[in-house]
Amino acid sequence: MAEQTILVVEDDEEIRDIIRVYLEAHQFRVIGAGRGDEAVRLVETMQPDLLILDVLLPGKDGFEVCKEVRAMSSAPILFLSCKKDEQDKITGLELGGDDYITKPFSPNELIARVKANLRRPHLSGEAPNRMRFGAVELDPVSRSVTVNRSEVTLSRKEFDLLYYLARHPGRTVTHEELFREIWDQEMINDTRTIIVHVSNLRKKIETDPANPKHIINVHGVGYKFILPLQKV
User: Fold this and answer.
1) Residue 187 falls within a domain, yes or no?
2) Span 203-219, mean pLDDT?
3) How many domains does the chain have?
4) Does 66 fall in a domain?
């Protein structure tokens, strides 16, 4: 397997170096940046496999960087911040972030999160078929999604979430199951992570996100994916 590249965007050089040491010990290639504007340029030129992104940065803050990166890349974005405000976490996820860790953090937890966000769900079968539901078409091989034949940009976690739900139509998928299968975590730390990702998905694939036809809430339990009725 080719060496995967991680872009670490952190203005504190000491923290950046600590992260670098741990990542390189796990055979990752590491690129460092201390400014938000520098990070955007590096994403364009180096196309990293994952970003570890601080929120408080000079040049452009992490939220601005995330927004610009999402316009050109689906690479997982793992926010790293000393800000513990719940709204900051929600903002990061709504902008397309995949995960969020607050400082101080355990380097081993960080490595585990990096590996989990780089791991893609196994595609069963030799050649998975495209999936169509209503105006939406999903291609699991190219990891692309179109709505009314226009491609929509999904983050890696958004795509994985949609694909998993679409492969289990009509069945209630619990929060616990989604955390285990998509986030590779056994325990639910915060269901808001799933709620925000589902909200983002609905905005991108549902005709009326406030009244979804495909991704339906099962109150207090999880979600159910509904396929449109077939005409006969």
Assistant:
1) yes
2) 94
3) 2
4) yes
